[in-house]
Design goal:
Elements (H helix, E strand, L loop, with lengths): L1 H13 L4 E4 L8 E9 L2 E9 L4 H5 L13 E3 L1 E4 L4 E3 L1 E3 L5 H10 L18 E7 L9 E6 L4 E6 L7 H5 L6 E5 L2 E2 L5 H10 L5 E6 L1 H9 L11 E3 L3 E2 L19 E7 L5 E5 L10 E6 L2 E12 L3 H18 L38 H9 L3 H8 L4 H9 L3 E5 L5 H7 L3 E6 L15 E4 L4 H5 L11 E4 L9 H7 L9 E6 L16 E6 L2 H10 L5 E6 L19 E10 L2 H10 L5 E8 L3 H11 L5 E8 L10 H7 L6 E6 L4 E5 L1
Parallel strand pairs: 8-14, 8-15, 20-21, 21-22, 22-23, 23-24, 24-25, 25-26, 26-27, 27-28, 28-29
Antiparallel strand pairs: 1-5, 2-3, 3-4, 3-7, 5-6, 8-13, 9-10, 11-12, 11-13, 16-17, 16-19, 18-19, 29-31, 30-31
Protein name: F-box domain-containing protein
């Protein structure tokens, strides 16, 4: 009998439909459900996709009720290996393992539930900060990836409102945007999980948004980032609190209990906190909540005490020590903790185990700052494998710099490519920029057309700084110019482009992120286009390569809010009307530097500057005035009399043919 049953089961399995292509399309609003029941007394199951507006309805159905699947959604259909259209339906309690595996590979879990508002009303973007200090405390989220629409989202792993995730402001089905300042939308789920695992040594910041906000931004092709004005910067969640301590009375610290002495950064109030973790180090900075307010605290000491009195004496000693250094730094909140005076007795520290600060005892923030000054090669060779903490810090750093040159260790680059933020290319060797998806800064010293053509928004979507430090004959590709000034690099802030030689075409859209721009050019019209396309530009440096081939006095009402302007022409002569045309666009400049050659009296340029720039607060120059002695109409005193801004100008060279005026 058993043998017959086995043959019958094998026969059913051999005839089982094998899915090949899914025919029922799933959107982010659809949630899959497996419905189990009985048909004429025989167990059956089937998969359906339930739309958002019916999720609550289907969940409310009582067990045993007769259901019509059409009322709730569509049965999932597929085309099998024999080109037949089949439904995800079968006899029994559960689907076969092969069908279940195919379903999980081709359909996603629900990314919303009945509690989510899918109607966009206003931005709901939150920067959530977690002061994660202990290995044994979980953040409290599960991470998911929607394969069809390619986005990451979270679900809280517990309903408790005490979890770090909930207290930091994260909610069920929030979309993940960035992690510690790095956009992670295009990363794999495995890579994101690795980031969470590595960041146990320091606070983390996660940018999330609601499903409705995410869909609104994606439909309008707008990138979400932390610099948007609508971002909510929420209070950090922490796992070290003084909120239950009475700071007006001595702390109760038991015999031989470990403790840390902390001091606020703002008012230097000193108190002691019991501490069981060995992860904290002297001078580390942490967020502490005290009496309902957040304070940044620095650990001044850690060790063990032999008595409660020593805790108070040691704290008193620290306050006395800080008092002698700077009396104003001590603030006694209620004048009942300690009385500070010159007669305070310094207690003996015989029984207090004092730690000597070593390099590895420095706070994480300082170590990360030190690493920022080093290249990846130096960091890896100097610190890796010295101890587990330094190794972990290096491997979790998200601000590494790589010099791509002839001596590059490609294996080392491959190991850290997802953590590289700054890249300096100083070789003509081939380099695939697509592997550095998180790149923020790119500096190119060596001309290679393949390097330059790879600089596109899809390849480097997080680019912030772009510098071409090449010879003056280098010309930027027109496609790259269009990308920069058409907001296709949404985070770009600092650009040194080199020579721009683009004809006048009014096709640029506005780029809001660009703040600093250095260019070489010989067309005044390009300068006008750049200013119109970059409303938030703060510092603009122009190097004139040739006499302007056209001059155009601004007749429109367009005025830019630029604050710092550098005009450099070297030996190229600039005429007064050319300088005046440029200044017409930028009347709000506060800092101006001019380096040029002219065949007009310098005093005329000085008068024009004062006439155009009413908000100017600093002027610097190096101007060569090519006039003979007989042609000169003023001296240095006349220039100083125009404005106090010119008092720093000196005549550094003077002969029969020319004069050079320069600031100190």
């Amino acid at each position: 009998m058993a043998d017959c049953y086995g043959k019958f089961r094998a026969s059913l399995k051999s005839n089982e439909s094998k899915p090949k292509i899914g025919l029922t399309k799933q959107t982010w609003l659809d949630t899959p459900f497996i419905i189990r029941g009985k048909y004429e007394g025989i167990p059956v199951w089937y998969y359906i996709l339930v739309s958002f507006d019916k999720i609550k309805h289907i969940k409310s159905q009582p067990i045993g009720k007769t259901l019509n699947s059409i009322e709730f959604g569509n049965i999932i259909q597929y085309r099998d290996d024999q080109q037949r259209i089949c439904s995800m339906f079968g006899w029994g309690i559960n689907p076969s393992k092969s069908l279940k595996t195919w379903f999980e590979q081709n359909y996603d879990d629900g990314t919303i539930d009945e509690t989510i508002n899918i109607k966009y009303e206003k931005d709901d973007i939150r920067l959530c900060t977690i002061q994660h200090l202990r290995f044994d405390e979980l953040i409290g989220i599960n991470q998911f990836y929607h394969k069809k629409d390619h986005f990451h989202y979270i679900r809280l792993s517990t309903d408790s409102q005490t979890s770090l995730a909930y207290r930091s402001g994260m909610r069920n089905f929030d979309r993940l945007i960035s992690f510690n300042g790095i956009n992670i939308e295009q990363e794999t789920p495995e890579k994101i999980a690795e980031r969470f695992k590595k960041e146990c040594y320091r606070p983390i910041q996660i940018l999330v948004c609601s499903p409705a906000t995410y869909q609104h931004y994606k439909l309008n092709n707008i990138n979400i980032h932390a610099n948007l004005s609508t971002v909510q910067f929420l209070e950090p969640a922490f796992d070290l609190s003084l909120s239950n301590l009475e700071i007006s009375t001595p702390l109760n610290i038991s015999m031989r209990e470990k403790f840390v002495v902390v001091q606020t950064e703002t008012n230097n109030f000193i108190c002691t906190v019991t501490e069981s973790s060995d992860l904290r180090h002297v001078n580390d900075i942490y967020l502490i909540k005290n009496q309902g307010k957040f304070h940044r605290e620095q650990i001044k000491f850690k060790g063990q005490l032999c008595s409660q009195d020593q805790c108070e004496h040691f704290r008193c000693h620290l306050i006395h020590q800080f008092h002698n250094e700077n009396t104003d730094r001590i603030l006694d909140y209620n004048k009942s903790i300690f009385e500070i005076n010159q007669h305070t007795r310094i207690p003996s520290e015989k029984n207090i185990l004092v730690e000597i600060t070593r390099f590895e005892d420095l706070p994480n923030e300082i170590i990360f700052d030190i690493l920022n000054y080093l290249t990846l090669e130096h960091t890896h060779c100097s610190f890796i494998d010295l101890n587990s903490r330094l190794s972990s810090l290096i491997r979790s750093s998200n601000n590494l710099t790589l010099i791509f040159d002839e001596k590059l260790d490609r294996l080392l680059m491959e190991s850290y490519k997802f953590q590289l933020v700054h890249l300096i290319i100083d070789t003509s060797n081939e380099c695939d920029l697509a592997q550095f998806f998180n790149l923020h800064s790119l500096i190119i010293y060596n001309r290679n057309l393949n390097h330059i053509t790879q600089i596109r928004p899809k390849t480097l979507p997080n680019l912030v700084n772009l510098l071409f430090l090449l010879k003056s004959d280098f010309k930027v590709p027109v496609e790259l110019i269009d990308d920069i000034f058409s907001n296709r690099f949404p985070y770009i802030r600092y650009v040194n482009l080199g020579h721009i030689d683009k004809p006048f075409i009014k096709s640029w859209s506005i780029t809001y992120s660009l703040e600093i721009l250095f260019i070489r050019c010989d067309q005044l019209m390009i300068i006008e286009n750049i200013l119109e396309a970059s409303p938030n530009l703060k510092h603009f440096q122009i190097h004139i390569l040739n006499n302007f081939n056209n001059i155009h006095i601004c007749s429109s009402s367009f005025k830019h809010q630029l604050k710092r302007f550098t005009l450099w022409s070297g030996d190229i002569e600039l005429k007064l009307n050319q300088i005046d045309a440029l200044l017409t666009y930028i009347p709000y400049v506060t800092h101006l530097y001019v380096q040029t050659t002219c065949q007009i009296p310098f005093i005329e340029i000085a008068k024009n500057i004062i006439y155009r720039l009413h908000f100017l607060s600093q002027f610097d120059c190096f101007i060569k005035e090519i006039l003979t002695k007989n042609e000169r109409i003023s001296d240095l005193d006349d220039i100083h009399k125009i404005s106090s801004l010119f008092h720093r100008i000196e005549c550094v060279v003077e002969n029969d043919k020319f004069r050079i005026f320069a600031t100190e």
